[in-house]
Amino acid sequence: MGGVIYMKEKIIAFVKKETVLVVAAILAVISAFFVHPDQAYIDYIDFRVLGILIMAGVQNNGIFDEIGRRLLAHTKNTAQLAFVLVFLCFFSSMVITNDVALLTFVPFALLTLQKCGQERLMVPVIVLQTIAANLGSMLTPIGNPQNLYLYNLSEMNAGEFLVLMLPYTVVSGVLLALTIFVLSARKRKIRLTDCHFSEEKKEMNKKLTGMYAVLFLMALLVVARILPYYILLAAVAVSVFLSDRKVLGQVDYCLIFTFIAFFIFTGNIGRLPAFQEILHSLVNG
Questions:
Q1: Which residues contact 90 (CB under 8 A, 6 or more apart)?
Q2: Rounded to an integer, what distance in angstroms lies between the CA atom of residue 79 and that of residue 77?
């Protein structure tokens, strides 16, 4: 009896944590009753998208932590401190995705604010970091999974995508800066030299950093449709397995399976004549 209750609690916890994955899986299964599994299912899956998502899951190697520490070394008051912490998320999300940016810099911000005696700024700074990561990530095709999917679906080139999203990103950045300015109207002087960051500082492995830099450049070439996705997948698999195997446990596999489920669901729906007629009637003209 106790085992059944434990399993029930585990399932409920998983559903709450991965609601999107569960919904996507249910939709994929339901759609399979209308379009029975066949060889076309493989064609639904955009392996190019999945390859870049996997790359995003393994590319964080302490580089952005080090960039953040060096930027903070030049801050003199709470306004500058908040600006650096928020815009680290804004700009880094453009290249390492919004989720990875938050996973990297929210703990970093909490530690920094605590060490500097600025706990009162924790809530507003983290709220702004969350907003900044989502706004900054919309600029690039690899900024977030939604962009990557839409970028591939639209068949735009990288330049067109950047030009399309640049005005919205610039306006977002300006509004974020104004918000920080208003919230920090009574800025206070701080001395970050007393924060003792060296205790938490991670040692960067130069060899791994170089490897991830090369893999990241390959990911950009895949986004630009210059390099085939399967070369990136093979390079990531071999490089990580040989040099940094433990990082495979840090990949967001639930996100990958969510995309696979949505690919199957949308692929099946697209093959239903009734749905096609409804869609055509909705967008006609």
A1: 132, 133, 135, 136, 173, 176
A2: 6
CB 253 within 8 A of CB 50: no
Q: In whole angstroms, what is the distance from residue 119 CA to residue 268 CA?
A: 50
Report residue 32 as tokens. Answer: 């399979």
pLDDT in tens, 255-275: 788 888 988 998 888 888 877
Distances (CA, A) of 238 to 148, 227, 235, 241, 257: 24, 17, 5, 5, 21
Rounded to 5°, the CA angle 247-253-258 comes to 160
Residue 196 region, left (φ>0) first, then alpha (ψ -120 to 50), else beta? left
Tell me if 145 sits within 8 A of 41, measured CB to CB: no
Q: How many CB atoms lie within 10 A of CB 89?
A: 31
Q: Which amino acid is at 15?
A: V
For tokens 């002087």, the residue is 189
* Pair 194, 76: CB distance under 8 Å: no
For tokens 């493989």, what's the residue?
A: 42
Q: What is the mean pLDDT of the chain?
A: 79
Q: Tens digit of pLDDT for each residue in 149-193? A: 788 778 788 888 899 999 999 999 999 999 988 887 666 665 555
d(C-alpha 189, C-alpha 77), whole Å:
4
pLDDT tens per residue, range 59-79 = 555 565 666 667 677 777 778
Name residue, tokens 């596999």: 253
